[in-house]
């Protein structure tokens, strides 16, 4: 009888493990690169940029074209004004190097400016949070940070009666605290009125657009008249029910959407609040 050839058992891991381990390694390296690129060190970035600008590293690389020890007379003897062409080429290289240095300098300046503005905005948010805590206003006024700046949110129930834009006496102390806060800074301010989606139709306010705009105007007028704030710092916006914070399903949702937002603008967005020059 013929003996069956037994398959030899191979030692070690199966072949698919090699491919799998390579994939895991690549993924690990990929995430390490992402993490390293997400944290920019301006000093290192500047030094690396300057090293790329330097042409000294090219002096250490051998030329792929063999040198034939050609003398200047042999190379340029019959060209007449050939030196001028060389000078022009060298001048062109200098110009391109200057442009590269300019671009890198602009990028570094932009990064530094962005970092300063981010720090200033974080400091503003910190000051406002501290102010709200010290005055025990956290339950009435909330603050949040956005790309535009810092937004103070006041629910309309403390400022106005239903379907009205006249400031209540009970709401004046809260606006006084905000007015004192605005006195301590020079930022431009946009005051926005927001309503729920229930329709309104009165002689004074035919729709929620008029009501929200009137409420924002009342708040700005109070800051100007009662706290002597510069009127050129302010913008007014009436958004009606177009920007709800939650869906208008319950009375509680309606209450959250009826609000006045006081946006303390960051320096980047202050240009929109300045009046056009004559």
From TrEMBL:
InterPro entries: Bact_OuterMem_StrucFunc, MotB-like_N_dom, OmpA-like, OmpA-like_sf. It is a single-pass membrane protein. Pfam families: MotB_plug, OmpA. Keywords: Cell membrane, Membrane, Transmembrane, Transmembrane helix. Residues 147-268 form the OmpA-like domain. Residues 81-99 have a biased composition (Acidic residues). PROSITE patterns: OMPA_2 (PS51123). Residues 69-99 are annotated as: Disordered. GO terms for cellular component: plasma membrane. It comes from the Bacteria. Its main location: membrane. NCBIfam families: PRK06925.1. Belongs to the MotB family. This is Chemotaxis protein MotB.
